[in-house]
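Entry type: protein chain
Record version: 2
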Amino acid sequence: MPGLADYIKEKGYEESTSSPELIELFLPSFFASMQRDLICQQGLPEFENRLRFAQATEALAHLRRQLRTRSFANSYKTRNAHSQGAYTRSRLLQNQIEVRIKAVRAQYDISRRSLLSLRGPGDWENTLKVLRAEDIQGINERTLNEEEQEEYRRARLLAGMSEETVEGELHGLGTTSGQENIPTVAFNRSLALGEGRRTLSWIWYTVTDEELMGVGEVQACLRVEWVKARARAERWREEVLLLEEEMRRSIAYCEWKAMYWDNAATTRSRPPESNDLALFEGVRAYAYRQASYERRRVVMWKRQWVAIQERATLVLTTQLGQGDILRNDQAMLIAPPLVVELDLSDNEMEGMEDGDVEVGDVDT
């Protein structure tokens, strides 16, 4: 870097030997693109580019390793820490793991900023994304929900921590050692709810071949998560099938009920006595009225549910179809927006004229 001496002299930088870790190295990524061409020799930024890419990739691998270690430590503490001493030792181990996770995250952030300076925005950002606090999750971990956050906040306040410190921990900005990441909790199949829409953090979609083929548990963990995801998809498929069958049976029941009222109106014989004529006409009118209600309900439900049935067919045939494995050049079809209509109450239906089945659309 032949122009570096003049640059340092012009800016007046002073090195401090008291903190060597804070000394600026003035690598090519430190300078803007125009300054870089004047200060650095040709080809030197490409060397740092390759170095930073490898460093960021390796940092993600280390982060995944530490997250697996944290999951194992949490599981071990839950199963074996039954005394105060064992719990304290497990807590110290977890704090050490959190400190290492924080160090790896800082290394990744530095590498990514350097790559952004050297390469600029591009497709590489789809692989090396911005690492947020909520992205630092293990395969079987999740962030706290609102109720758990309130319980966590209450316990911390009772322990004597300030409200600002507790809020910082819940946002990944803790001030104590080992609390610089958002608190997470392991999934419990008997307690956790809402796993149907759960997704892994993006860091687990960038696993390298070395990690998969190594002696670690990455491959086994990913296989377990794949099996869980497939089980959830099959459960969703079952729910969609049940919903479709319930809609079919509801319409079939209304059609049968309409025929029942028609038969009830026609099978009753007309009484010879003139005193029962009004009762006879009233019973027939009531039966025909109920049959009309059922037929109008069939028409209304068929019209309202056509969008839901089309969505169910799309989901069953493309997204949750058994044996349908998408190739790399195939993308999962995105279902169109769904419009659902509100049902009318019985009182509102009584005030409608025959054939008047208009209902306001409601977007959901």
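Comment: Confidence is low (pLDDT under 50) at residues 189-193, 322-332, 346-364.
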